[in-house]
Design a protein that fits this description.
With 239 residues, the chain is mostly helical. It is built from 13 helices and no strands.
Length: 239
């Protein structure tokens, strides 16, 4: 009996699952289910949420789009469905699919803070190094930079630390102290999760006394609750 390489078997399973998922996505009427989130009775709304959650990550693009619906009842149902779907995907083979959908929604949410805040928190649950390049591009965005920094610190690891470290170097060169403080704080949060990220021997040490004073300012900001445009991230807005 000829043995099938495990890589080939896994590839076959993945392709089969993706094709099955595409067939489901094409055959399922997401629009009518999303419309069910605005049902006049609570039972109808709950049924729509449960149907979306049952479909899972394939429904996530439609659910995320509904976060910006003009009807607040639809937005509330979409938030509930998105949270269940993403929490269920975290740590599973569905995480990359969820992260891709969330990254798309997050990158286009700059003028809609209620969408940005929710996608930011959910993205932080499933994001990986695959999202680091896209997050790096958003780090300088005045509407999304703060949230992108938050997600990068949640992803952690050398790739995220390198991006934040590079942004810190630019902030030090341009004299943007508010941003530099927030970036130092972000690096500090990553160090707490992964002691192997010895950032103290990197950009902050190269910055000399100024780097040390920025770290001290970051600690004072946390104690006092102050934050800059690139500082602490607010909780998701309810609208």
């Amino acid at each position: 009996m000829r043995r099938v390489p495990i890589q080939a078997l896994l590839c076959t399973i993945l392709v089969t699952a993706l094709l099955a998922g595409q067939g489901l996505a094409q055959s399922y009427d997401f629009d009518s289910t999303i419309a069910g989130l605005s049902a006049s009775d609570e039972a109808g709304r709950q049924a729509a949420i449960e149907r979306l959650c049952g479909i899972g990550v394939l429904a996530l693009p439609s659910v995320l789009e509904a976060l910006d619906d003009g009807n607040p009842t639809v937005r509330q149902g979409a938030r509930a469905a998105a949270e269940v779907i993403v929490y269920g995907a975290a740590g599973t083979y569905n995480a990359p699919i969820a992260a891709s959908s969330l990254m798309t929604a997050f990158a286009t949410s700059g003028s809609r803070p209620w969408v940005r805040d929710h996608t930011m928190h959910l993205l932080s649950l499933v994001a990986s190094n695959d999202q680091v390049p896209a997050l790096a591009e958003l780090l300088d965005d005045r509407q999304l930079g703060e949230a992108a920094l938050y997600v990068l610190t949640r992803v952690g690891g050398p790739a995220s630390a390198s991006v934040v470290d590079g942004a810190l170097g630019q902030a030090l060169q341009t004299g943007d102290e508010a941003r530099a403080v927030a970036l130092v704080e972000g690096l500090g949060r990553m160090e707490c999760r992964d002691p192997k990220l010895d950032q103290d021997s990197g950009r902050r040490r190269a910055a000399g006394p100024r780097g040390s004073s920025l770290a001290a300012e970051s600690r004072r900001s946390r104690r006092s609750g102050r934050h800059s445009a690139y500082g602490l991230v607010p909780e998701p807005r309810r609208c």
